[in-house]
User: Fold this.
Amino acid sequence: MKKILGILFLLIVIAIGICAYFFPGIPYRYKCTHEFKLLDSIYSEFPADIAPLPADYADYSNLGIRITAWNDMEAVRTEDKNEALWENEDKSHTIHVKTETLGDNYDFLDRTGITHEALNSYCKKVGKTPPETNHEFVRLIMSLTMEDFDIHDMKNAKTFYKLMSLKNEEFMGLNCPVRYYSGDGVGYKGYMKTVEMPSEKTAVINIYPDKNNHRHYTIELSVTDWNEILAISESIKLTE
Assistant:
């Protein structure tokens, strides 16, 4: 009996050794599947059949941005010269534009715990284009699924775990779905984040002009209808 148990123990040790050698990423795969709620892609391209906005909608322009939306809003004075706000009387329709200048030392991987070397290594192994900008990084993270996990490399598995950790910071509960959409337009790249909560819906658009790597716009929109918000987002134009 002891001999049989000894052989069984040896076989288990050998099996563990084989798994550790050929599949070193198993511990991180376990952590991902047991720690995280968001394991599917939450990133989408804009639908091709978005209905056009009504002809009586108005254009609003400031800070180098022009956007077409509801025609019942008026400009509201703000304390910050880098902000512009329009809203209607009951504030059911609002557009809030903010602009900031990114410094020369800005790095989208700051405070992520991920190095460019580790990210590039992971992307190369799983056949993805390494992101060079923040909007490309967001697209990568939000579109990841467990099919993108590299179980054969411990460092890549750890990088994937960190990326999934960043993605799951967006999780607000099953009743509050979060979605990301591609928000590219003429002369700029970007993305839109939408959150649907029981009490309210929100949409935030991030824009990065092609000709100015230091400029970043954030546009917050009130939401009455998601298809309408997608169409409003598509109306955005740069004026500088």
User: Anything to note?
Assistant: Residues 212 and 223 are 29 Å apart (CA to CA). The chain is about 30% helix and 25% strand.
